[in-house]
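Chain X:
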Amino acid sequence: MDLRKIFGDIGKGGDAASGAFELFDKQFRRSIVKYLLRLRLTKADAEDVTQEIYIKVFRFSGQSSTFESPEAWLWSVVKNAALDHVRRRGSSDSSKFLFQDQDEIEQLPAPTLEVPAGAVDDCIERGVGNFFRSMPDRAAAIQMVLDGLSIREISKRIDRTEKATAQYLYESRKRLAPYVAPCGEYLGA
């Protein structure tokens, strides 16, 4: 069933809402929880955030006819709910979270990484983590590729055409490269 129709039925209330919500849960719960876990939330936190997302879906589903792209709206709600959860937990835990608000991070050139002998994996993990913190929207798009989503699915989530999405992913990979380049020097690349 179309997500716009699901949201519309949820917004109606009553039996229609109950059936539509069950369908929504069946179609999206796994993807939402998986996405939250990939953002390094614990299983319990991911379930809590999922419940918050469901509340927002119920609250705003009546306005679904105004959503240009219901799927893009949903994934925006998912990302924002995860960010809100991390903020509530405090700044000490936010360093474990892959994505942070763009406003909180200055767009600086990739940092120079020191690579201790035998720690190439750690170097790459730090470089990718720095990229994710610096460019959360681009990182989210790359994460969707890593999760096995097609260009078509990603384009729906980020509300772009398939061609624009492919270009955005290409540019995102190019912007990731300087963050992991110091690790290549260690490998002799």
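Chain Y:
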Amino acid sequence: MDFMPNTEELSKIFSEATAPAFLLGAVAGYVSILLGRIAFVLERVRTIHDISEEDTERIRLRSDLPRLKRRADLLSRSTYLALCAGICTTSLLAVNFISAFLGLQHAPGAALLFLLAVVLLGSSLFRFAQEVRIGLSEFDHYR
């Protein structure tokens, strides 16, 4: 059994890795956006929690807490799903390379991993859309 693929086989391996590598890059950028949004929401929750009972002008802001907690929950779920999609994509890349080096048939497993990654990413986008809808439809009371 020859463990070192020739130049033609290596070229095929790298061309098959292009789509998953782009998907992995997109997932990484998307997770970065999600983490930025969740950081903003959590900072807003902390700010509202710091309002004292004596501050009668700003105490009304506490009514935003349930909505902000819902947004944080949706962003958390979206981030988790996106990270799972990234793990599936990384596994897909590993399966492609390992099976190519070992000369194994990997198309069915690779297709399943890619489908799973896309479904997880789609689910994450759905949760993110729910959070965006809440964020745009019900504004904070600010100040």
